[in-house]
Every structure is written in structure tokens, then in C-alpha cells.
Design goal:
The protein has three helices and four strands, in the order αααββββ. It has helices spanning 4-11, 20-28, 36-43; strands at 48-51, 57-63, 66-72, 78-86. The longest helix has 9 residues, at 20-28.
Length: 87
């Protein structure tokens, strides 16, 4: 799993203009181990929620030019980022 900070550093720094969701996630930085409710409280509700075979969930946030997918275990604890695209 990726740390959100690693992914964001790969695409761009937290400085300068960014998309709204990206800005909020950038401020929150390390997501792994955080509660689903806490992440949603910071970045807003996800655009999509999918179940995983182990009882967890994949949550996706999508905005113009930005998409991130975060996986949570069955207890709602973040396991990390599975996908991020920034254009």
C-alpha cells in the first residue's frame, strides 16, 4: 500500500493551486490507520463505494482532473491508497 504523502509527492507538491479533494487529502497526508468517518469528515462524502471480498470497502473520490481510491478494512480502518490520478 502507498502512503498518500508518497503518492502526492510523486504527482506534485502540496503547494500551489490544487483541486478541492486533492487539497483536503494533501492536508490530511498519512491516511493509513485512520478511521473512514474521520477521512470523510475531512474530504467529504465519496462519489462511489464498493465492497471488497474480505468485508472491507473501496471508497472513490472523483473531481475534475483528480481521482483517488482508498481501501478500508472490515472495521472501517484505512489500509491505504490503491489508485490516484491527477491531470
Amino acid at each position: 500500500m502507498w502512503r498518500i504523502g508518497d503518492v502526492l509527492d510523486h504527482f506534485s507538491s502540496c503547494k500551489g493551486p490544487r483541486k478541492s479533494i486533492a487539497n483536503q487529502i494533501c492536508k490530511y497526508r498519512l491516511l493509513k490507520g485512520k478511521k473512514k468517518e474521520d477521512i470523510i469528515a475531512v474530504v467529504g462524502p465519496p462519489n462511489s463505494i464498493s465492497a471488497t471480498p474480505d468485508g472491507g470497502q473501496l471508497l472513490q473520490w472523483i473531481s475534475t482532473g483528480y481521482h483517488i481510491v482508498i481501501v478500508f478494512d472490515a472495521n472501517g480502518i484505512c489500509q491505504g491508497v490503491t489508485h490516484e490520478t491527477s491531470v
